[in-house]
From TrEMBL:
Coiled coil: none annotated. This is Thiamine kinase-like enzyme. The keyword tRNA processing does not apply. Residues 14-214 form the Aminoglycoside phosphotransferase domain. Pfam families: APH (PF01636). PANTHER family: CELL CYCLE REGULATOR CCRZ, PHOSPHOTRANSFERASE YTMP-RELATED. The keyword Magnesium does not apply. It comes from the Bacteria. InterPro entries: Aminoglycoside_PTrfase (IPR002575), CcrZ_PhaseVar_Mediator (IPR052077), Kinase-like_dom_sf (IPR011009). GO terms for molecular function: kinase activity.
Amino acid sequence: MEQLLGKEWEITPAGGATGDAYVAEYDGRKLFLKRNSSPFLAVLSAEGIVPKLVWTKRMENGDVITAQQWLNGTELKPHDMGNEQVANLLRKIHRSQDLVEMLKRLGKTPLSPHMMINNLRPMLQQWCDEPLIKQTFAWLEQQLPLIRCDEFAVCHCDMNHNNWLLAEDGRLYLIDWDGAMIADPAIDIGMLLYSYIPKEKWEDWLRFYGLELTDDLRVRMKWYTVVQTLYMLGWQKEKKAEKEMQQSLHFLETVLSST
């Protein structure tokens, strides 16, 4: 990193699961650096979805370093997720054809429900002693014929409130796009609603977003929320994150029993 910026810059880890993010400071300037971000970051920056991309540089070892404008701000709290501003930004993302075209150029293809459930099948062997997982797969396969989508969009696929940054100037950004894919927008909407919004307020939130709460949308949101929770459980099991696994299993049980 020092060879890119100079020894006068102070570079410190920014945290995160990958360990590839840093904060660089010098003479009142501050940058957010990340190693091997997707080229997708450029179009996200151009659309104002992430903080401004300042530069991109390739290192001698082949790594690509991106530098973004550092913004003073705060991560959203769980109770902030019902905000109209959140719904508006997610709607902008899901309706952007530029984002879809960019991901396609990067080799991404639309992810169908059949592909998602097939990717999860190895979990059945790893969780053979957990009846809830078997019950979950049976439910997913039973509901699969009902899961249809006519319009695919770029989905962020990690609606955690920590990924929403409210800058001091009042602008909202959605960061950490490493898991983005082209899929049914109900993937993002469902996980957000089930995780943060009381059911009696779903219709209000969806009105901000620009959708009606139909029976079809309910089924799709529940199905994708269950699928995403299984993906999360797989990752947590690999990391031996026992506490988080128990929380996810409880969340899964709650979603499955919901109407």
